[in-house]
Amino acid sequence: MAEEMFLSTSAKPITILPYSRQREVCGARADLALEGPARNGTIIHEGDFFMKTLIIYYSHEGNTDFVAKKIADKIGADTLRLAPVKKYPEKGFAKFFWGGKSAVMAETPDLEPYSIDLASYEQIVFGFPVWASNITPPLRTFIKENPGIKEKRIAAFACQSGAGAEKAFGKLKESIGIDSLAATLILIDPKDKPSDDNDKKIDDFCKKIF
Ligand SMILES: Cc1cc2nc3c(=O)[nH]c(=O)nc-3n(C[C@H](O)[C@H](O)[C@H](O)COP(=O)(O)O)c2cc1C
To answer: Which PANTHER family does this UniProt record tie to the protein (predicted)?
Structure first.
């Protein structure tokens, strides 16, 4: 029995599979399940367990990239890092001025070509740095180019240095055209300020989107 755990094969019936078979079916996700709900005796529903997830993110200075890779690793998700054709300035006043203006004006900058089969994902996780209490413009472009994503389960995480993420989540929902996000996560400059608290928040978020 030690090597077995509950694995749902539909929303209701529960089948017990050997752990080795679970790894075959779920890959990295099996580990998280063992640490999470299954260990506590809670039934895992199919949607939670098998949801194929794509993390779509923009990162200017590496914090969002750092978190996106951690989440992808934990839940076995794919990632798509968006890149604008015209890069935002990297330093000083120009960085805040042009980035902030672009966010406030809700610009949709052209993106470097990306190739992704959105139809094969049930869940999208958006990740972005908060800019002027708003989402970063490359996400706006992606959302405009892919209006069908509103039919998927959508979660989001934001990196910030102070405040504004809640407002930015509102802007994200507005631009997609949805009323709610399945889960949210807010971190303060997580690459530059690593902490156990951040790791726990990331784990909790992963359990919600798993
Ligand atoms: C143009 C610009 C605007 C920003 N606006 C905010 C803001 O409104 N609130 C905040 O807390 N941090 C703000 N920040 C800080 C970033 O959100 C924060 O450092 C984030 O962790 C950076 O993520 P990244 O490394 O993935 O780019 C801003 C940064 C830039 C460059």
So the answer is: EXPORTED PROTEIN-RELATED (PTHR39201), FLAVODOXIN-LIKE DOMAIN-CONTAINING PROTEIN (PTHR39201:SF1)
